[in-house]
Amino acid sequence: MSGLILTRRGLLTSMSAVGAAGVLAACGAKTGSGTSPGAEAKADTSGDTVKVGLLNSLSGTMAISEVTVHNALLLAVKEINASGGVLGKKLEAVSQDGASDWPTFAEKAEALITDDKVVATFGCWTSASRKAVKPVFERYKSLLFYPVQYEGLEQSPYIFYTGATTNQQIVPALEYLRKQGLTRLYLVGSDYVFPRTANKIIQAYAKANGMRVVGEDYAPLGSTEFSTLVNKVEGAGADAVFNTLNGDSNVAFFKEYKSAGLTAKSLPVLSVSIAEEEVKSIGTQYLEGQLTAWNYY
After folding, report:
1. What residues pair up with 216 in beta bridges, in sequence order?
2. pLDDT higher than threshold 60 for residue 202
3. Which domains does the chain have, with CATH numbers?
4. Positive or negative torsion for Cα 241, 99, 163, 159
5. Cβ pair 188, 233 in contact under 8 A
6. pLDDT 10s digits, 139-168
7. Residues 6+ apart with CB under 8 A from 31
8. Mean pLDDT for all residues in the chain
9. Residues ≥6 apart with Cβ < 8 Å to 233
């Protein structure tokens, strides 16, 4: 998972912790108690079961990444319940599909909090979806556990940021490239918050450390057309490509990259948002020798 190796023990620990935190925070809440805008959410803890929200893209361009997270969360709920639950209560997973659409994420987050009365929510992947739901969780004083690396520069008392920030992932990746003598970079990313902010940090690092950004291009999230962009990369004189594409755009990009005759030996790509599902969809023949930001440090 994009710079984050999610172990079963870590997931179970997080799920148990939020279950306990949610149950304790919501003690005394009554079934059906209303929540008006600006009021604290009233999670239902009156029975033997408490609900946790799973808010992931089960459809759309980000499903390739988020369905795996959703399945891991379901497994965690199953195993926690098999071991006795949390504080004597079993967990019930309530799933909502953010559909790779930021307004939909905000709508579904509010439904989980106000209609389903979850004690906490696990979800989002892109920073755009997280920023869309952030005011919702803050308005209702409800908890969100966010599972992925991100650009930093944000904090909230209602969000647990469990992934790496740029100083923990992207900066070490740049240091690795510099030590390999790969100092001329081409930046390729999806057109939203994380890639653009990450690339500003890359630009600053490059300027301060004797590296040079020779090109920077963005594709709409979900784009599958990369022939023009790959041609620009090929002709830019770069030593390496720093890739912040997300979702199934990675599949189209690497297949076009291979078709253009580019390889890890001729022009390596360092990626920060590729995991097992993307590798399976792309095919190892397209990724042979390429780097991801979780396998080099």
Report:
1. 187
2. yes
3. 8-161 (3.40.50.2300), 170-292 (3.40.50.2300)
4. positive
5. yes
6. 999 999 999 999 999 999 999 999 999 999
7. 44, 46, 47, 117
8. 87
9. 186, 188, 215, 217, 241, 257, 262, 267
